[in-house]
């Protein structure tokens, strides 16, 4: 299947309403019938304004986080529309990819 890899960049402590942006993105993806996401916590990063963000020993609040999805074009547009409606300012990358599933489903999956 052809589509996109969407990667959103944020910080662990960033919030939208009562949820973190990461929790909000995962919930929106689920309600848009997007199945599967990977959340990657990074040790350090530099934001768009040049500020360093890093996980500290006693405080992970400023820890950089990526939320990654493999989606179809329609799913990508639904997620972008939801972000726009919510008014969240969020940096992203969108790269064309081919994706799919190999092998037989296991009994535990």
Explain this structure:
There is one protein chain. With 109 residues, the protein is α+β, with helices and mostly antiparallel strands. It has helices spanning 21-31, 73-86; strands at 2-11, 15-16, 19-20, 38-41, 44-46, 52-54, 64-71, 91-98. Strands 4-7-1-8 form a four-stranded antiparallel beta sheet. A two-stranded antiparallel ribbon has the order 2-3. A two-stranded antiparallel sheet has the order 5-6. A hairpin with a 2-residue loop joins strand 2 (15-16) and strand 3. The longest helix has 14 residues, at 73-86. It is globular, with a radius of gyration of 15 Å. The two termini are 21 Å apart. The mean pLDDT is 85.
Order of helices and strands: EEEHEEEEHE
Broad shape = globular
Mind telling me the C-alpha Rg? Answer: 15 Å
Q: What is the total tally of β strands?
A: 8
CATH hierarchy class name = Alpha Beta
Largest sheet: 4 strands, antiparallel
What's the N-to-C terminus distance? 21 Å
Put simply, the count of helices is 2
> What structural category characterises the helix and strand content?
alpha+beta
Which CATH-level-2 architecture? 2-Layer Sandwich
Beta-strand percentage range: 35-45%
Write the layout of secondary structure elements.
Elements: E1 2-11, E2 15-16, E3 19-20, H1 21-31, E4 38-41, E5 44-46, E6 52-54, E7 64-71, H2 73-86, E8 91-98
């Amino acid at each position: 299947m052809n589509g996109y890899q969407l990667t959103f960049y944020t910080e662990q402590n960033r919030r939208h309403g009562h949820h973190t942006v990461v929790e909000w993105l995962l919930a929106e993806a689920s309600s848009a019938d997007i199945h599967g996401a990977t959340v990657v916590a990074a040790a350090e990063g530099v934001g768009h304004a040049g500020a360093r963000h890093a996980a500290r020993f006693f405080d992970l609040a400023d820890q950089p986080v990526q939320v990654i999805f493999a989606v179809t074009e329609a799913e990508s547009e639904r997620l972008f529309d939801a972000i726009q409606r919510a008014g969240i300012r969020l940096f992203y990358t969108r790269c064309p990819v081919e994706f799919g599933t190999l092998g037989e489903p296991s009994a535990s999956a």
